[in-house]
Amino acid sequence: MSGVFFPISETKHLAPGSTCPEVTPGLMRLYNMKFCPYAQRTRLVLAAKRIPNEVVNINLVAKPDWYFARNPLGKVPCLEFDGKVIFESLITCDYLDEVYPSSPMLNSTDPFRKAQDRILIEMFNAVNSNLYKLYRCSLDDESTWKGAIVGIHKGLQIFEDDLAKREIQFFGGQNPGIVDYMIWPWMERLPSLPILSHEMLKVQMENYPSLVKWFDAMKEDDAVKESFISPENHAKFITSFLAGNPEYDMEINK
Amino acid sequence: MSGVFFPISETKHLAPGSTCPEVTPGLMRLYNMKFCPYAQRTRLVLAAKRIPNEVVNINLVAKPDWYFARNPLGKVPCLEFDGKVIFESLITCDYLDEVYPSSPMLNSTDPFRKAQDRILIEMFNAVNSNLYKLYRCSLDDESTWKGAIVGIHKGLQIFEDDLAKREIQFFGGQNPGIVDYMIWPWMERLPSLPILSHEMLKVQMENYPSLVKWFDAMKEDDAVKESFISPENHAKFITSFLAGNPEYDMEINK
């Protein structure tokens, strides 16, 4: 089977006054926000494992009351199926990988390799925490943005070294695995930085030849294509979000 | 087999100028700090699963250089065995549970129960983050300590409700499981608060009858006994730590 795998249905971003769409028996439901990198992790795993699903998008600045009955924290991603609910991105992804062990298996079956992969995912916090700092910081605050860029480079170097050492195309081997999909959402957003604010926030990638090859290969992955958003639209969304009027449905209306 | 299970050997807290003790082939080594709640998680799992191990304690305010060759982050816990290294408390614990599946298995073999347990462990952050706030805050800063105590009660209520709903002694069932051991280190430290500073920081437990019973049962567990430190000594350590002169070896010299 090849080609892009879409969810069976996808709603606009629901807000107070909406009704929770009726559950389709036997179908996995993902509560999502189109631009949330954590929810994208779960979406990538659903697509990679070709698990039929429906997507209910949630307006995260004005959440519908009924959503808290699913997830008391009110966050996305959240999975619902057979009256059961699971949230937290890594927990949902590991769950899906365990209950749908059919190809491809994303976590390694070797416990040591699996532990190393989980450590790598933790270390990616250096990149994702600093990306959000850059989204929010003013260019006048030079020490903050310079520090954040140094932090991102430190993080990227860990992944460059690891990938070069493994001598494989993806962290998962011949195909993307759990590390690839867990870090992708923020890698997809990195090129939005110079569009969003200024060329000086561009993260120069020339010292990361393995990661650049990885990035290009990931963009061709079917699961990545399913949820891919262009750097221009990521920048447009962040701009609208920071202005207090997030254009959640931008990608749905197109 | 019953009775308290000790590690085979345990060093004082090693600092710069020390030499890394030679590795014992085939023996699991834990890099630890006697009062670190995260490292205690791993220690509890080693003891619960009766995995023979040696403990090398690390002075965390003055770390020996050689330690960074094991863990580039310089944190504990860290496991070393057969030239391999794993760190991050939850990752070390899950790894041990996977490679030593002999009784007792701490994670549920049901993927949904396992996911629910991982969510519960995440939710315990409400308790552990606020405990450390209380350790550090001044009693003059009333809004901070009152807010932290409210946060702890919110967290405890989640666990009380969950335990009452399960109608079992431990979160793991008849015996402690992964949730029990992952939250225990901070539960052990809660009674140190009123000793450390003031009776008003005492976390009143009368609204948590299931948790109180759980607490008493946990104190009788062999794995808990192995690393148990009294509220008095926790308070003494925190006092020395906040004064800039942590008494790391207090429990080893006794």
Plain-language structure description:
- The structure is a homodimer of 254-residue chains.
- With 254 residues, chain A is α/β, with parallel strands linked by helices.
- Helix content of chain A is 50%, strand content 10%.
- Chain A contains 12 helices and 5 strands.
- Chain A has helices at residues 37-48, 67-70, 89-99, 111-123, 125-136, 142-166, 178-189, 192-196, 209-219, 222-227, 231-242, 250-253, and strands at 9-14, 28-32, 53-58, 78-81, 84-87.
- Chain A has a 5-stranded mixed β-sheet with strand order 1-3-2-4-5, covered by helices on one side.
- In chain A, helix 1 packs parallel to helix 3, helix 4 runs parallel beside helix 7 and helix 5 (125-136) packs antiparallel against helix 6 (142-166).
- Chain A binds chain B through residues 84, 86-88, 91-92, 94-95, 98-99, 111-112, 114-116, 118-119, 122, and chain B through 84, 86-88, 91-92, 94-95, 98-99, 111-112, 114-116, 118-119, 122.
Give the total of domains of chain A: 2
Would you state the CATH class of the largest domain in chain A?
A: Mainly Alpha
Largest protein interface, residues of each chain = A-B, 18 and 18 residues
Indicate the proportion of strand residues of chain A: 5-15%
The number of distinct helices of chain A, counting runs of at least 4 residues, comes to 12
Portion in helices of chain A: 40-55%
Family (chains A, B): Belongs to the GST superfamily. Omega family.
InterPro entries (chains A, B): Glutathione-S-Trfase_C-like, Glutathione-S-Trfase_C_sf, Glutathione_S-Trfase, Glutathione_S-Trfase_N, GST_omega, GST_Omega/HSP26, Thioredoxin-like_sf
Protein name (chains A, B): Glutathione S-transferase omega2 isoform a
Domain GST N-terminal (chains A, B): 26-104
